[in-house]
Amino acid sequence: MPQAHTFATLRTEIAGHGVVELARRFGTPTYVYDAGTIAARIEELRAFDCIRYAQKACSNIAILDFMRRRGVLVDAVSAGEIDRALAAGYTTTGEPPPIVYTADIFDRAALTAVVERGIHVNCGSADMIDQLGQAAPGRDITLRINPGFGHGHSQKTNTGGEQSKHGIWHEDLLDCLRRADAHGLAVTGVHLHIGSGTDLAHLAQVAKAMEGFAAEVGRTVTTISAGGGLPTPYKDGDSYVDLDVYFRLWDETRRRLEDRFGHKVRLEIEPGRYLIAESGYLVAEIRAVKRMGKNTFYLLDAGFNNLARPILYGAYHPMSIAPADQSQAADRPEHDVVVGGPLCESGDIFTQEEGGFVSPRNLPEAKVGELLVIEVAGAYGSVMSSNYNSQPLSAEVMIKERTPHLVRVRQTFADLIRGEVIPP
Known about the structure:
alpha/beta
Protein backbone atom coordinates (compact mmCIF):
# COMPACT_ATOMS: atom_id res chain seq x y z
CA MET A 1 0.00 0.00 0.00
CA PRO A 2 1.59 3.34 -1.01
CA GLN A 3 2.28 5.92 1.67
CA ALA A 4 1.09 9.50 1.64
CA HIS A 5 3.41 11.88 -0.17
CA THR A 6 5.72 14.47 1.23
CA PHE A 7 6.09 16.96 -1.59
CA ALA A 8 9.42 18.69 -2.16
CA THR A 9 9.60 22.28 -3.39
CA LEU A 10 12.73 21.72 -5.50
CA ARG A 11 12.76 19.25 -8.39
CA THR A 12 15.58 18.41 -10.76
CA GLU A 13 14.15 15.42 -12.64
CA ILE A 14 11.02 13.56 -13.73
CA ALA A 15 11.31 9.79 -14.11
CA GLY A 16 15.08 10.06 -14.30
CA HIS A 17 15.17 12.87 -16.87
CA GLY A 18 16.31 16.39 -16.03
CA VAL A 19 13.47 18.91 -15.99
CA VAL A 20 15.68 21.53 -17.63
CA GLU A 21 16.64 19.13 -20.42
CA LEU A 22 13.00 18.13 -20.98
CA ALA A 23 12.04 21.81 -21.28
CA ARG A 24 14.95 22.49 -23.62
CA ARG A 25 13.96 19.58 -25.86
CA PHE A 26 10.17 19.93 -25.90
CA GLY A 27 9.59 23.58 -24.93
CA THR A 28 7.18 24.99 -22.37
CA PRO A 29 4.49 24.69 -21.26
CA THR A 30 4.55 20.91 -21.62
CA TYR A 31 2.76 18.08 -19.88
CA VAL A 32 5.04 15.20 -18.91
CA TYR A 33 3.64 11.79 -17.90
CA ASP A 34 5.62 9.13 -16.07
CA ALA A 35 4.30 5.82 -17.43
CA GLY A 36 5.85 3.93 -14.52
CA THR A 37 3.53 5.67 -12.07
CA ILE A 38 0.48 4.73 -14.18
CA ALA A 39 1.61 1.10 -14.27
CA ALA A 40 2.05 1.05 -10.49
CA ARG A 41 -1.46 2.38 -9.90
CA ILE A 42 -2.93 -0.23 -12.26
CA GLU A 43 -1.22 -3.03 -10.34
CA GLU A 44 -2.70 -1.79 -7.05
CA LEU A 45 -6.20 -2.49 -8.39
CA ARG A 46 -5.63 -5.98 -9.82
CA ALA A 47 -7.82 -7.62 -7.15
CA PHE A 48 -10.89 -6.27 -8.97
CA ASP A 49 -12.22 -8.42 -11.82
CA CYS A 50 -12.14 -5.49 -14.22
CA ILE A 51 -10.34 -2.15 -14.16
CA ARG A 52 -12.11 0.29 -16.46
CA TYR A 53 -10.32 3.59 -17.06
CA ALA A 54 -12.49 6.73 -17.02
CA GLN A 55 -10.67 8.31 -19.93
CA LYS A 56 -12.18 11.75 -19.42
CA ALA A 57 -9.37 12.23 -16.89
CA CYS A 58 -6.73 12.13 -19.65
CA SER A 59 -7.64 10.80 -23.08
CA ASN A 60 -4.44 11.10 -25.11
CA ILE A 61 -4.39 7.99 -27.28
CA ALA A 62 -0.88 7.13 -26.04
CA ILE A 63 -2.29 6.94 -22.51
CA LEU A 64 -5.22 4.82 -23.73
CA ASP A 65 -2.87 2.48 -25.59
CA PHE A 66 -0.75 2.11 -22.46
CA MET A 67 -3.85 1.19 -20.44
CA ARG A 68 -5.08 -1.28 -23.08
CA ARG A 69 -1.78 -3.13 -23.24
CA ARG A 70 -2.07 -3.73 -19.48
CA GLY A 71 -5.56 -5.19 -19.69
CA VAL A 72 -7.38 -2.05 -18.57
CA LEU A 73 -10.73 -1.51 -20.29
CA VAL A 74 -12.18 1.91 -20.99
CA ASP A 75 -15.15 4.14 -20.27
CA ALA A 76 -16.28 6.75 -22.81
CA VAL A 77 -18.61 9.69 -22.22
CA SER A 78 -18.95 10.95 -25.80
CA ALA A 79 -18.77 9.82 -29.40
CA GLY A 80 -15.34 11.43 -29.55
CA GLU A 81 -14.11 9.32 -26.64
CA ILE A 82 -15.43 6.19 -28.36
CA ASP A 83 -13.40 7.17 -31.42
CA ARG A 84 -10.33 7.78 -29.24
CA ALA A 85 -10.64 4.33 -27.71
CA LEU A 86 -10.89 2.75 -31.15
CA ALA A 87 -7.89 4.77 -32.36
CA ALA A 88 -5.92 3.42 -29.40
CA GLY A 89 -6.69 -0.17 -30.40
CA TYR A 90 -9.75 -1.06 -28.32
CA THR A 91 -12.37 -3.22 -30.01
CA THR A 92 -16.15 -3.02 -29.80
CA THR A 93 -16.83 -6.65 -28.89
CA GLY A 94 -15.83 -8.83 -25.98
CA GLU A 95 -16.78 -9.83 -22.47
CA PRO A 96 -16.48 -7.71 -20.46
CA PRO A 97 -17.20 -5.01 -23.06
CA PRO A 98 -13.91 -3.28 -23.92
CA ILE A 99 -15.69 0.08 -24.27
CA VAL A 100 -18.69 1.23 -22.24
CA TYR A 101 -20.52 4.48 -23.01
CA THR A 102 -21.54 6.22 -19.78
CA ALA A 103 -23.59 9.42 -19.82
CA ASP A 104 -26.83 11.09 -18.81
CA ILE A 105 -27.90 11.79 -22.39
CA PHE A 106 -27.33 10.64 -25.92
CA ASP A 107 -26.48 13.44 -28.27
CA ARG A 108 -27.25 12.36 -31.83
CA ALA A 109 -23.63 11.46 -32.62
CA ALA A 110 -23.30 9.30 -29.50
CA LEU A 111 -26.56 7.44 -30.13
CA THR A 112 -25.49 6.70 -33.69
CA ALA A 113 -22.08 5.51 -32.50
CA VAL A 114 -23.36 3.10 -29.84
CA VAL A 115 -26.05 1.67 -32.12
CA GLU A 116 -23.87 1.20 -35.20
CA ARG A 117 -20.82 -0.08 -33.30
CA GLY A 118 -22.64 -2.18 -30.72
CA ILE A 119 -21.18 -0.29 -27.73
CA HIS A 120 -22.50 -1.31 -24.30
CA VAL A 121 -24.36 1.59 -22.63
CA ASN A 122 -24.46 2.68 -19.01
CA CYS A 123 -27.70 4.69 -18.91
CA GLY A 124 -27.91 7.69 -16.60
CA SER A 125 -31.46 8.74 -17.44
CA ALA A 126 -34.83 7.23 -18.31
CA ASP A 127 -34.77 9.02 -21.66
CA MET A 128 -31.58 7.18 -22.60
CA ILE A 129 -33.36 3.86 -21.98
CA ASP A 130 -36.23 4.86 -24.26
CA GLN A 131 -33.97 6.25 -26.99
CA LEU A 132 -31.69 3.22 -27.05
CA GLY A 133 -34.67 0.86 -26.82
CA GLN A 134 -36.31 2.48 -29.83
CA ALA A 135 -33.08 2.43 -31.87
CA ALA A 136 -31.69 -0.96 -30.78
CA PRO A 137 -34.19 -3.07 -28.83
CA GLY A 138 -33.08 -6.27 -27.19
CA ARG A 139 -29.66 -5.19 -25.97
CA ASP A 140 -28.04 -5.51 -22.54
CA ILE A 141 -27.60 -2.27 -20.57
CA THR A 142 -26.21 -1.00 -17.29
CA LEU A 143 -28.00 1.52 -15.10
CA ARG A 144 -26.11 4.28 -13.34
CA ILE A 145 -28.05 5.07 -10.18
CA ASN A 146 -27.90 8.26 -8.12
CA PRO A 147 -28.27 6.91 -4.57
CA GLY A 148 -29.49 10.21 -3.13
CA PHE A 149 -26.16 11.15 -1.54
CA GLY A 150 -22.76 12.25 -2.82
CA HIS A 151 -19.34 13.43 -1.77
CA GLY A 152 -16.19 14.95 -3.26
CA HIS A 153 -13.31 17.35 -2.73
CA SER A 154 -15.54 20.10 -4.17
CA GLN A 155 -19.27 20.51 -4.68
CA LYS A 156 -18.43 20.67 -8.40
CA THR A 157 -17.02 17.12 -8.28
CA ASN A 158 -19.92 15.71 -6.26
CA THR A 159 -21.87 13.40 -8.56
CA GLY A 160 -24.56 12.17 -6.17
CA GLY A 161 -27.55 13.67 -4.40
CA GLU A 162 -30.43 15.79 -5.58
CA GLN A 163 -28.21 18.69 -6.71
CA SER A 164 -26.31 16.44 -9.11
CA LYS A 165 -27.44 15.87 -12.71
CA HIS A 166 -25.82 12.44 -12.80
CA GLY A 167 -27.54 9.08 -12.78
CA ILE A 168 -31.06 7.74 -12.40
CA TRP A 169 -32.70 8.96 -9.21
CA HIS A 170 -32.92 5.96 -6.88
CA GLU A 171 -36.68 6.37 -6.41
CA ASP A 172 -37.15 6.04 -10.19
CA LEU A 173 -35.41 2.68 -10.50
CA LEU A 174 -38.62 0.63 -10.80
CA ASP A 175 -39.94 2.92 -13.54
CA CYS A 176 -36.68 2.52 -15.46
CA LEU A 177 -36.84 -1.26 -15.14
CA ARG A 178 -40.33 -1.17 -16.64
CA ARG A 179 -39.08 1.00 -19.51
CA ALA A 180 -36.24 -1.44 -20.16
CA ASP A 181 -38.70 -4.35 -20.19
CA ALA A 182 -40.92 -2.52 -22.67
CA HIS A 183 -38.01 -2.39 -25.13
CA GLY A 184 -36.66 -5.86 -24.40
CA LEU A 185 -33.51 -4.37 -22.81
CA ALA A 186 -31.89 -6.59 -20.19
CA VAL A 187 -30.40 -4.72 -17.22
CA THR A 188 -27.22 -6.71 -16.66
CA GLY A 189 -25.19 -4.10 -14.77
CA VAL A 190 -25.56 -1.60 -11.94
CA HIS A 191 -23.14 1.31 -11.52
CA LEU A 192 -22.70 3.81 -8.67
CA HIS A 193 -20.35 6.78 -8.46
CA ILE A 194 -20.83 9.62 -5.97
CA GLY A 195 -17.87 11.91 -6.64
CA SER A 196 -14.11 12.39 -6.95
CA GLY A 197 -11.96 12.53 -3.84
CA THR A 198 -14.26 10.59 -1.55
CA ASP A 199 -13.09 8.90 1.65
CA LEU A 200 -13.47 5.30 2.80
CA ALA A 201 -16.58 6.01 4.88
CA HIS A 202 -18.44 7.42 1.88
CA LEU A 203 -17.12 4.70 -0.43
CA ALA A 204 -18.44 2.11 2.04
CA GLN A 205 -21.82 3.82 1.91
CA VAL A 206 -21.81 3.29 -1.86
CA ALA A 207 -21.20 -0.45 -1.48
CA LYS A 208 -24.13 -0.76 0.93
CA ALA A 209 -26.42 1.15 -1.44
CA MET A 210 -25.27 -0.97 -4.38
CA GLU A 211 -26.39 -4.15 -2.68
CA GLY A 212 -29.93 -2.87 -2.31
CA PHE A 213 -30.21 -1.54 -5.85
CA ALA A 214 -28.78 -4.69 -7.44
CA ALA A 215 -31.20 -6.81 -5.41
CA GLU A 216 -34.08 -4.66 -6.69
CA VAL A 217 -32.98 -5.16 -10.30
CA GLY A 218 -32.73 -8.91 -9.73
CA ARG A 219 -31.07 -11.95 -11.27
CA THR A 220 -30.32 -10.34 -14.63
CA VAL A 221 -27.45 -8.49 -12.92
CA THR A 222 -24.07 -9.99 -13.84
CA THR A 223 -21.86 -6.92 -13.22
CA ILE A 224 -21.62 -4.32 -10.48
CA SER A 225 -19.34 -1.28 -10.81
CA ALA A 226 -17.92 0.56 -7.83
CA GLY A 227 -17.30 3.62 -9.98
CA GLY A 228 -14.25 5.75 -9.21
CA GLY A 229 -13.54 8.53 -6.76
CA LEU A 230 -10.52 7.00 -5.03
CA PRO A 231 -8.62 9.81 -3.28
CA THR A 232 -5.29 11.06 -4.62
CA PRO A 233 -2.80 12.95 -2.42
CA TYR A 234 -2.22 16.57 -3.41
CA LYS A 235 -0.92 17.97 -0.11
CA ASP A 236 1.52 16.87 2.56
CA GLY A 237 -0.37 14.58 4.93
CA ASP A 238 -2.98 13.52 2.39
CA SER A 239 -3.47 9.77 2.48
CA TYR A 240 -4.58 7.03 0.13
CA VAL A 241 -7.57 4.85 0.88
CA ASP A 242 -6.74 1.39 2.22
CA LEU A 243 -7.31 -0.60 -0.97
CA ASP A 244 -7.27 -3.95 0.79
CA VAL A 245 -10.12 -2.85 3.06
CA TYR A 246 -11.92 -1.25 0.14
CA PHE A 247 -11.72 -4.36 -2.02
CA ARG A 248 -12.89 -6.61 0.83
CA LEU A 249 -15.88 -4.33 1.31
CA TRP A 250 -16.90 -4.69 -2.33
CA ASP A 251 -16.00 -8.36 -2.55
CA GLU A 252 -18.28 -9.13 0.41
CA THR A 253 -21.06 -7.15 -1.29
CA ARG A 254 -20.50 -9.06 -4.51
CA ARG A 255 -20.52 -12.47 -2.76
CA ARG A 256 -23.80 -11.75 -1.01
CA LEU A 257 -25.33 -10.84 -4.37
CA GLU A 258 -23.96 -14.04 -5.91
CA ASP A 259 -25.60 -16.04 -3.13
CA ARG A 260 -28.86 -14.21 -3.77
CA PHE A 261 -28.78 -14.61 -7.57
CA GLY A 262 -27.22 -18.04 -7.79
CA HIS A 263 -24.59 -17.01 -10.36
CA LYS A 264 -21.29 -15.17 -10.61
CA VAL A 265 -21.23 -11.38 -10.48
CA ARG A 266 -18.32 -9.45 -12.01
CA LEU A 267 -16.86 -6.66 -9.86
CA GLU A 268 -15.61 -3.62 -11.79
CA ILE A 269 -13.86 -0.47 -10.63
CA GLU A 270 -13.77 2.66 -12.79
CA PRO A 271 -10.89 4.93 -11.76
CA GLY A 272 -9.83 7.97 -13.74
CA ARG A 273 -7.88 10.41 -11.61
CA TYR A 274 -6.42 7.65 -9.43
CA LEU A 275 -4.64 6.03 -12.38
CA ILE A 276 -3.30 9.15 -14.07
CA ALA A 277 -3.08 12.15 -11.70
CA GLU A 278 0.24 11.46 -10.01
CA SER A 279 1.96 10.59 -13.29
CA GLY A 280 1.49 14.09 -14.72
CA TYR A 281 3.60 17.23 -14.45
CA LEU A 282 3.02 20.58 -16.14
CA VAL A 283 6.43 22.14 -16.80
CA ALA A 284 6.31 25.91 -17.29
CA GLU A 285 8.83 28.74 -17.46
CA ILE A 286 8.82 31.70 -15.08
CA ARG A 287 8.59 34.77 -17.32
CA ALA A 288 8.21 37.51 -14.71
CA VAL A 289 8.79 38.00 -10.99
CA LYS A 290 7.05 41.07 -9.60
CA ARG A 291 5.83 42.58 -6.38
CA MET A 292 2.29 43.89 -5.90
CA GLY A 293 2.09 45.40 -2.43
CA LYS A 294 2.75 42.56 -0.01
CA ASN A 295 2.54 39.85 -2.68
CA THR A 296 5.33 38.46 -4.84
CA PHE A 297 4.12 36.95 -8.12
CA TYR A 298 5.75 34.26 -10.22
CA LEU A 299 4.12 34.60 -13.64
CA LEU A 300 4.40 31.60 -15.94
CA ASP A 301 3.99 30.91 -19.64
CA ALA A 302 1.22 28.45 -18.61
CA GLY A 303 -2.23 29.62 -17.55
CA PHE A 304 -5.69 28.26 -16.87
CA ASN A 305 -5.87 27.54 -20.59
CA ASN A 306 -3.42 24.73 -19.77
CA LEU A 307 -4.65 23.72 -16.29
CA ALA A 308 -8.17 24.81 -15.34
CA ARG A 309 -8.66 22.94 -12.05
CA PRO A 310 -7.58 25.83 -9.77
CA ILE A 311 -9.89 28.38 -11.39
CA LEU A 312 -12.75 25.89 -11.69
CA TYR A 313 -12.87 24.69 -8.09
CA GLY A 314 -9.87 26.02 -6.22
CA ALA A 315 -7.96 22.78 -6.68
CA TYR A 316 -4.60 22.60 -4.93
CA HIS A 317 -1.57 21.30 -6.82
CA PRO A 318 1.88 20.82 -5.29
CA MET A 319 4.52 22.94 -7.00
CA SER A 320 8.28 22.88 -7.25
CA ILE A 321 11.06 24.96 -8.73
CA ALA A 322 13.50 23.40 -11.20
CA PRO A 323 16.66 25.53 -10.97
CA ALA A 324 18.45 26.46 -14.16
CA ASP A 325 21.75 25.67 -12.42
CA GLN A 326 21.53 22.60 -10.18
CA SER A 327 24.65 23.67 -8.30
CA GLN A 328 22.58 26.58 -6.99
CA ALA A 329 19.64 24.42 -5.93
CA ALA A 330 20.59 23.94 -2.30
CA ASP A 331 19.92 26.41 0.49
CA ARG A 332 17.54 28.59 -1.46
CA PRO A 333 15.40 30.69 0.88
CA GLU A 334 11.67 30.08 0.61
CA HIS A 335 9.01 32.75 0.74
CA ASP A 336 5.31 33.14 0.02
CA VAL A 337 4.50 33.70 -3.63
CA VAL A 338 1.40 33.87 -5.79
CA VAL A 339 1.73 31.78 -8.96
CA GLY A 340 -0.16 32.98 -12.01
CA GLY A 341 -0.25 32.71 -15.77
CA PRO A 342 -0.14 34.96 -18.85
CA LEU A 343 -3.85 35.31 -19.56
CA CYS A 344 -5.77 38.56 -19.56
CA GLU A 345 -7.90 37.40 -16.62
CA SER A 346 -7.55 38.24 -12.93
CA GLY A 347 -8.57 34.66 -12.18
CA ASP A 348 -5.51 33.25 -13.98
CA ILE A 349 -3.96 32.21 -10.66
CA PHE A 350 -2.79 28.70 -9.83
CA THR A 351 -2.55 29.36 -6.08
CA GLN A 352 -6.18 30.06 -5.26
CA GLU A 353 -8.89 28.50 -3.15
CA GLU A 354 -12.45 27.80 -4.18
CA GLY A 355 -14.27 31.08 -4.60
CA GLY A 356 -11.25 32.76 -6.21
CA PHE A 357 -9.44 33.68 -2.98
CA VAL A 358 -5.70 34.02 -3.58
CA SER A 359 -3.66 31.72 -1.35
CA PRO A 360 0.12 32.32 -1.52
CA ARG A 361 2.42 29.30 -1.58
CA ASN A 362 5.77 28.88 0.15
CA LEU A 363 8.28 28.22 -2.65
CA PRO A 364 12.01 28.65 -3.15
CA GLU A 365 13.38 31.90 -4.47
CA ALA A 366 13.47 31.79 -8.28
CA LYS A 367 14.29 34.04 -11.17
CA VAL A 368 13.03 34.64 -14.69
CA GLY A 369 14.00 31.79 -17.01
CA GLU A 370 13.83 29.10 -14.36
CA LEU A 371 11.17 26.43 -14.44
CA LEU A 372 8.19 25.83 -12.20
CA VAL A 373 6.62 22.37 -12.16
CA ILE A 374 2.95 21.94 -11.29
CA GLU A 375 2.67 18.40 -9.98
CA VAL A 376 -0.07 15.74 -9.72
CA ALA A 377 -1.43 17.31 -12.91
CA GLY A 378 -2.14 14.24 -15.02
CA ALA A 379 -5.89 14.19 -14.40
CA TYR A 380 -8.20 16.87 -15.78
CA GLY A 381 -5.23 18.85 -17.01
CA SER A 382 -4.56 18.62 -20.73
CA VAL A 383 -8.11 17.37 -21.43
CA MET A 384 -9.58 20.62 -20.10
CA SER A 385 -7.16 22.82 -22.06
CA SER A 386 -8.50 25.61 -24.25
CA ASN A 387 -7.30 28.14 -26.81
CA TYR A 388 -8.37 31.12 -24.72
CA ASN A 389 -6.38 34.26 -25.62
CA SER A 390 -5.40 32.34 -28.78
CA GLN A 391 -2.94 30.26 -26.81
CA PRO A 392 -1.91 26.99 -28.48
CA LEU A 393 -2.47 23.67 -26.76
CA SER A 394 0.70 22.49 -25.05
CA ALA A 395 2.90 19.59 -26.04
CA GLU A 396 2.54 16.28 -24.17
CA VAL A 397 5.38 13.87 -23.43
CA MET A 398 5.26 10.34 -22.03
CA ILE A 399 8.35 8.90 -20.39
CA LYS A 400 8.04 5.19 -21.07
CA GLU A 401 10.73 2.64 -20.29
CA ARG A 402 13.19 5.46 -19.52
CA THR A 403 12.62 7.16 -22.89
CA PRO A 404 10.70 10.42 -23.41
CA HIS A 405 8.21 10.24 -26.29
CA LEU A 406 6.39 13.23 -27.75
CA VAL A 407 2.74 12.08 -27.70
CA ARG A 408 1.12 15.38 -28.65
CA VAL A 409 2.74 17.97 -30.88
CA ARG A 410 2.38 21.55 -29.68
CA GLN A 411 -0.27 23.41 -31.65
CA THR A 412 0.80 25.92 -34.26
CA PHE A 413 -0.97 29.10 -35.30
CA ALA A 414 -2.16 27.28 -38.43
CA ASP A 415 -3.74 24.64 -36.17
CA LEU A 416 -5.32 27.39 -34.11
CA ILE A 417 -7.28 28.98 -36.97
CA ARG A 418 -7.94 25.78 -38.93
CA GLY A 419 -11.65 25.65 -39.72
CA GLU A 420 -12.19 29.43 -39.38
CA VAL A 421 -13.51 31.08 -42.53
CA ILE A 422 -13.78 34.74 -43.55
CA PRO A 423 -16.95 35.11 -45.64
CA PRO A 424 -16.81 36.97 -48.97
